[in-house]
Fold DNA-binding response regulator.
Amino acid sequence: MRVVIAEDSVLLREGLGGLLARFGFDVVAAVGDADALIKAVAKARPDLVVTDVRMPPGFTDEGLRAAVALRVTDPDLPVVALSQYVQHSYAGELLGSGQGRAIGYLLKDRVADVAEFAATLRRVAAGETVVDPEVVRQLMQRRRDPLDQLSARELEVLALVAEGHSNAAIARILALTEAGVGKHIGNVLAKLNLPVSDDTNRRVLAVLTYLRGQQ
């Protein structure tokens, strides 16, 4: 079985290539970035692609985006994405491509048996879809409306924030203390799991989440 590997770390790339060779795979190309992956697949026409999610230059989701692009060109190309974590952007697109066939999404730290890993690659190459249960759990959790976590009062406060009211104005409208409004807003920011930054930016992100939920 002809395989193209994409992994930016030289040691991991060579190690994965050696591992696959031990189990009878023919590694026809091993590359270190997403652009090289696209070119290698076009040239080698492999039976399977195994790619890391984080790749140069941004080390975010370049490998995953390349996998999605490859599946757009060839929906039947078997692809296995390997990652340290669940990359939500593009993960759903990859798993939904090619009618959901011949796709793998595995978390590196949860691969405990190399023989089982090799068998998983063969299953994906044969058309099966294999997704780590933790990936499924996190993607399903992500799809839930984040506003569902907020109490009725927190939603009231967030709605007034979205209308542009200050904490003092919200306190007057809802007959609360400013300290109480601040506490509600803090709870909203925490429940929406917004990245830590200055409070102004976090309020804007909270408002955007609220507005998306009203569409």
Observations:
- Residues 45 and 214 are 46 Å apart (CA to CA).
- The chain is about 55% helix and 15% strand.
- The chain has two domains: 2-143, 146-213.
- The domain at 2-143 is CATH 3.40.50.2300 (Rossmann fold).
